[in-house]
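Weekend entry, working from home. Most of the wet-lab plans are on hold until the incubator is repaired, so I used the time to fold the two sequences that have been sitting in the queue since the last round of cloning. Logging both here for the record. First:
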Amino acid sequence: MHPTRLTATVAALALSASLATALAGTATAAPQAQPVPPGHGKSLALAAADGAAASGLDELRHGAEEDLVRTSVTPWANGLYYASYERSYRGLPVVGGDAVVVSDSSGKVREVTGAPVPAIKVSTRAKVTSDAALATARAQLASVESASAPELTVLLKGGKAVLTWHTLVIGRTAQGAPSSLDTFVDARTGSVARATDKILHADGRGYHNGNVTIDTAATSMTDTSRGGFKCGGQNGSAYTGSSPWGNNGANDLVTACVDIMYAAQKEHSMLKEWFGYNGQNGQGGMVPARAGLNEVNAYYDGTKTTYGRAQTGSNQLTGIDVVAHEYGHEIFDRTPGSAGSSNENGGMNESTGDIFGALTEHYANNPNDTPDYTVGEKVNFFGDGKPIRNMYNPSLVNNDPNCYTQLTSGTEVHAAAGPQNHWFYLLAEGSNPGGGKPNSPICSGGPSSVTGIGIQKAGKIFMGALLMKTSSWNHPAARRATLSTAKNTYGSAECNAVKAAWNAVGVPAQSGETDCGGTTTPDFSLALNPSSGSVQPGASVTSTVNTSTTGGSAQTVQLSASGAPSGVTVSFSPSSVTSGSSSTMTVQVAAGTANGTYPITVTGKGSATHTVTYQLSVGSTTPPTGCDNAENTYQGTLASGQAQAQPDGSYYYSATAGTHVGCLRGPAGADFDLYLQKWNGSTWADVAVGGTASADENTSYYGTAGYYRYVVHAYSGSGAYTLGLSAP
């Protein structure tokens, strides 16, 4: 059994009858279908998302040796789900090929975003050893605290795929600065292909929140209700003692941890209560915190947050906005796409920290640190009582850019936070908010004024957009994502406010962005079932092209295919459908057609144009035999790392207790696994597993009445398989 690979691949299968739109299988007989199990709204959404990923819808296009594996799912308002995917190539992770699918509980794909991906053709055999690569990575820093074991990874860089060893090295630079270096060493040449520092510095903040309530264990500064979050000194251990913690001293480190835990816990609660998001890491917790750094600095390095002192030594840098800013970096890092490598992406990461600092201040509403839109205003960092950044008018501090058009590739990352910070203030408060709040300027070419929608709505729109983030995140992508989130979460008024705020900071309209009008823009989606097929020369194979209406009224979709090799013809019956209907695609392979794997692009054209990809294998072996005594037989084809649900991408219902017998026969030399799963009311759970290191598996399970399905997983190797099953 291979639990690690199983978790990544089988988890990517949706949990409903709508799997039929995403997964392959040819049945010779089928158990009687029953009504869909209850509680399947999420499963319908994930079936649609996984179907889009398997079919290579639009930006999800991938080659025959690539796979898109669902890595996280975040529920959202109005029955929406954000499913993020990471790309793999021949079983290796791909950095830079990530994507997000937004789908709803009715089983419709609402939005697809993906980082641009070149065709991946690279050898997966390393010439440089992992030990040599690790030595090279460690040599980038003057001193090393820790380094992760190198992992063979395909890095997409400059439009090309590079085989690399990937490791995270934590330590200090030659200048003594802390560093968390995300390093990729070329596995062919041994040189450093890319190294990005994950540490993002916040140059000082305020301190002292007064007497507050925090959640800790009885004898240590550990919060078990938030994933074991803890705070302590530079050795990483939580401070011990008992309540009341601290003494209100400006440089007492236990008191510093009181302020850190207060701000981090307020941010955690704000995320849950305002946005329905489960903590800074999206899984209910956050990284630990360390106080007492003897430097004028505070930072997040991917494994912890660390807080130092003010320049004058008068206090620790543990105000609400500094702590929430650092944990804002964790939010940016742990949402899809993680933290990118470009300077613009880095500026947006800094801005994200500032935005979550402002959000947390407003949520906490602490009289010792009243809510505002300035950064570090309590620190007196330069001895003049001024903040280090300003969100309503960034140019008031160091002449930082207010407008997107002022950014260059060389803009310092903290200064590059200006345009998005400015956008957020305009969206939340407007250009002339009144009530004692400062006015905010509008960039050249923008609207005459902007009306705010309130910080809570603005924050939820921003959080929703982060769930659509990819590794190629930039301001135009943020504009598209925030418009989509505003329309899907609230409606036309909020969508138009988002648009006005982006116009006001000079981020122009983008092709294909959401229409904020009161009516829904007509649109549709495509999916193939199955998305791949194997056939001998002189024969044919079929697939169903499923369409769905994702916006407006149903429309006519014209189907066509391109990219078929010589000797292969593709036809559709019917050649055009009304969205919501399906068509049968027949791929006819002439005798003499060369063996090989060929991607065929299927295009649907209506009010918009969408594409999916069918992977055709010519000359593959026929499905093996050996399950002749089974009551029902299914056949399919899998590439290494892929999985399919049976029967026919769906499930069956057993009305009585009895024994379920499964028989899998896979291609010679491959390692295929078989899982029998039962619906437990909320998810599919494994009840029997055939997980030996061979192509053939057998399972037998005595179970009560209920819904069941089999999952066939190609752990390694590719080819056709036969599944036989017998049920009570």
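Second, folded right after the first finished:
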Amino acid sequence: MNKQIKRAKLIGGKPKKLRSFKPPEEDKLIVDREGNIIGSLSTDEPEELSAKDGRERDTGSGDSETGMSRKMRQETQLTAEERELKESTEISEDFDRLKRQLEEQVGLNKSFDVIFREMVFGGQKTGIFYYNGFIKDYVLTEILERLSYADQVRQEAEHQEPAEERRKPYRNWRTDHEEEPPGRQKEGNRRNIIGLFDEALIPHVQVKRTCKLKEAIDNVAMGGTAFFFEGQREAVLVDAKSFPARTTEEPELERVVRGSRDGFVETLLTNVTLVRRRVRDPRLKLEITQVGKRTQTDVCIGYIQDICDMKLVESVRDKIKEVKVDGVPLAEKQLEEAIVGKSWNPYPSVRYSERPDVVAAHLLEGHVIVFVDTSPSVMILPTTFFHHVQHAEEYRQTPIVGTYLRWVRFIGIAASIFLLPLWLLIVSSPELKPAGLEFLGPQKPGRIPLLGQFLIAELGIDLMRMAAVHTPSPLAIAMGLVAAILVGEVAVKAGLFTNEVILYLSVAAVGTFATPSYELSLANRICRLALLVIAAVFKVPGFVIGSTVLLLMLALQRSYNTPYLWPFIPFNVNAMRHILVRVPFLSMKTRLSLTRPKDRTRQPQR
């Protein structure tokens, strides 16, 4: 028994130590002298290679694929055949080569949403190329159902009397060509197959042919479907697309009490249709182009041909064509910066609108509108400062009520810029107080200087605004209570802020929120902060100089060669009357000269 125990101990041996788990080491980064990350080095590669490659990179002769794995090298380094397939533009007759072209150019068999479906219709091998998620299932189902009758249609075409077809002034896929030479017969057969599918078998409205592979790929990337036929160098493109889109609803920033409730969405075709519905003039032109080498974002330029100044249209068109970037994923804002180029000026040079009725009204005034796909905002060119302070609600009421609403808005916008600097200037310089306004100023000074109170409160309001954007709707009310009661009231009771600072800051904030243009309200807020600081430091001279600089900046600014403060500078009596007073509809007989319209008459002459 004791011998068995000793033997068991001998077999068991010493207990093994558990290996501690070590996480995989990360690759070492290769950084140049300017701090740019130019590559990585795997931990299993020698450090001498890293130093050598770093020196080669500094001299500009290094290998750009240092630190890549073998698999990554294989994916990035193309063979001569792969490069030729990637750069080819012609549609191949052989489906095997065609699929290799699609593999190299669009990632077929790599991207899960790129589909190439092979089917046979009427003895003709057909390839259906599309992006899953863009296609309309029911439309393609109808097309495939129709294609299933290809044998029947072809047999009927072959048994038709050729004499009837010869009477037609043109030749199509039914035309008899037995007397043609063999080479022409073969080419005619190719045309007949394409014509058979295009004219008789594909029951869709928007269909076109192409012999360019890039055009077919671009059409599919925009949501279409391409039909390839083996033995043919031509494809049939069907525009049967369905983009993920929301329904039209009233814009949050341009609400009205009375009026239409529809608004633009992220789909270009829907937005164009909403404008076409309101402007049924056949001279309304909508030109489409693409911006971005990689994104190929659709951009549409809209104008009424016999009203709009064609020099303005050409200028906008040329500037859009000159945009050479990888893409504009942020849509209209990036395009605006590319075609306007106003650098650091905070005031907007274009007007945005999400209301189709507002856009239609500007079209009738001779403006140019720019749609950008994936964006519900439409750019209006050119615009002035006074375009940004008008609202659709003014034209939905009677002229006297519209004028009253406009002046209330003007007062609110002026208060949002000048109220706080003027109050701070009067309080800090008591000799400036006019008679009867001696009550202005805090009765008890706070523990924080007035300028500090204003700056802290301004930053607090901006912080609450940003928090409201990112806060879910059920929590927005709770956030407002916290900001108003726990922060504002407690700060006043603690003596950190004075009541008048909160009062006047609230009035300025309401004026900011009453500004119709969100971009203009942000620009006014920045100018208000600048005037506050200048008035606190330099007193009256600082406020006067700051206001003068602001006025000069606005007067010198131009939007497509249009004065920004027109009709105030340069002064135009008739146009200024339309700005100050909401004129009755039938009294507006001519268009304003701002856009230099061809036809200035609003009402047709009898």
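Plan for Monday: verify the second prediction. The CA atoms of residues 315 and 560 lie 8 Å apart.
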